[in-house]
Automatic annotation (TrEMBL):
The lineage of its organism: Bacteria, Bacillati, Bacillota, Bacilli, Bacillales. It comes from Paenibacillus cremeus. The keyword Lyase applies. Keywords: Lyase, Pyridoxal phosphate. This is Threonine synthase. Its EC number is 4.2.3.1.
Length: 400
């Protein structure tokens, strides 16, 4: 039985499953599954007894053998309801998917659990990635888990804690004087000589499939009732493709019905190629004074596809400023959520869309907090907090 194969998103030609991402026509290849085969073992009842990890959906993941799975306990992150915010905002329901609780502190764990499993299954011993940070630490962790070598290339201003994290996992770490696409060129150029496999965005089919599990999980956690709107912080865009793919497969399985959620990409103003593509402008902005986060991808490889999927779901894309992101980080913090700048950007996007009336009282909304605030600590100014020794000191500070 053939579990899955690759189908071109442009010309619909199919080919056997493999570690390739481009069709001869140049189109992006997507994994397609024999869903009738999947249904034999993947049932809603069966899910009740499965592991609390993304591998509970193994029938919809591209590994051939279960013992090839490289796992650190990724996925099955909480989806929590924001009841206090709901009482104040003109919307029906609001949830946050807490992706920062993944093994490497970001949703990138999912993509690399899946991608590294595929490499491992084929005996590949060395992998590389161009990254803004979280992909690097995820590749490093999963390679370490599998006993493989990782080479990671991140911009010079990558948050220090993430660099440290990569080193702790034993990766070969290089700082690149440039953006993520400059790092990408280094990885591509070196692959023949160095013998590393390029696990960059949309270079192999595993990462999108891993990210897809965010959508599967969210649907299961909402008892197969999809929300009206999903706000997602977008960089390279494979998260959006993954979510879209999840809902399409669930529809084909007959587990969800009706319209797909309106997908919204949030980017940081100044590095907003997806927003520009949705609005029909050419990509603009220098990107150099935007934050060194997962959103800083000036040249996403499949910008057109992302814009198309957003439009297809009647979604949109918004650019929010650094100031709005900082404010949003505090707004989520005050609700108990440790949000990375990217995760906080979704809250800022939500505020904007409510203001514009694009999100209203009938809408249930899910925000994705893709990473933990702590990883970006070095980007914050040193906090000023009073130092005290006695209660009298406390009283003094409280008065001032
Ligand atoms: C990589 C990353 C993003 C962007 O995700 P894409 O799927 O590449 O669009 C968003 N947030 C965080 C924390 C990231 O690490």
């Amino acid at each position: 039985m053939i579990k899955c194969w690759l189908t071109c998103m442009k010309c619909a030609q199919t080919q056997p499953m493999g570690l390739v991402s481009r069709c001869a026509c140049g189109g992006l290849l997507a994994v397609e599954y024999d869903l009738e085969l999947a249904k034999r073992t993947l049932t809603k009842e069966a899910l009740a007894d499965r592991a609390s990890s993304m591998w509970r959906y193994i029938e919809l993941l591209p590994v051939q053998r279960e013992n090839a799975v490289v796992s650190l306990g990724e996925g099955w992150t909480p989806l929590i309801r924001m009841t206090r915010a709901e009482a104040q905002l003109p919307l029906k329901r609001l949830y946050v998917k807490r992706e920062e609780q993944n093994p490497t502190g970001s949703f990138k764990s999912r993509g690399f659990s899946s991608a590294v499993s595929l490499l491992h299954e084929r005996g590949i011993a060395k992998a590389a990635v161009p990254s803004n940070g979280n992909a690097a630490s995820a590749l490093a962790a999963y390679c370490a888990r599998a006993g493989m070598e990782a080479y990671v290339f991140v911009p010079q201003d990558c948050p220090e804690l993430i660099i440290q994290e990569c080193l702790n996992y034993g990766a070969h770490v290089y700082l690149v004087d440039g953006f993520i696409h400059d790092a990408g060129r280094i990885v591509e150029e070196g692959k023949a000589t160095e013998g590393w496999f390029n696990t960059g965005t949309m270079r192999e089919p595993g990462r999108v499939e891993g990210k897809k599990t965010m959508g599967l999980e969210m649907a299961e956690q909402l008892e197969w009732q999809l929300p009206d709107v999903i706000v997602y912080p977008t960089g390279g865009g494979s998260g959006i493709i993954g979510l879209w793919k999840a809902f399409r497969e669930l529809k084909e399985l007959g587990w969800v019905h009706g319209e797909l959620p309106r997908l919204v990409s949030v980017q940081e103003a100044g590095c907003q190629p997806i927003v520009d593509a949705v609005q029909g402008f050419g990509a603009g902005g220098s990107s150099s004074d935007t934050l060194p986060t997962g959103l800083r991808v000036p040249e996403p490889p499949d910008c057109g596809i992302i814009a198309e999927l957003l439009k297809q779901t009647k979604g949109t894309a918004v650019a929010v400023t650094q100031g709005e992101i900082m404010k949003a980080q505090q707004a989520l913090g005050k609700q108990g959520i440790s949000a990375s700048p990217e995760g906080a950007a979704t809250w800022a996007g939500l505020m904007r869309l409510i203001e514009e009336g694009w999100i209203g009282t009938d809408d249930s909304v899910v925000l994705f907090n893709t990473s933990h605030a702590i990883k970006y600590e070095s980007l914050q100014p040193k906090p000023t907090v009073p130092v005290i020794r006695t209660y009298a000191n406390f009283v003094h500070w409280k008065r001032n």
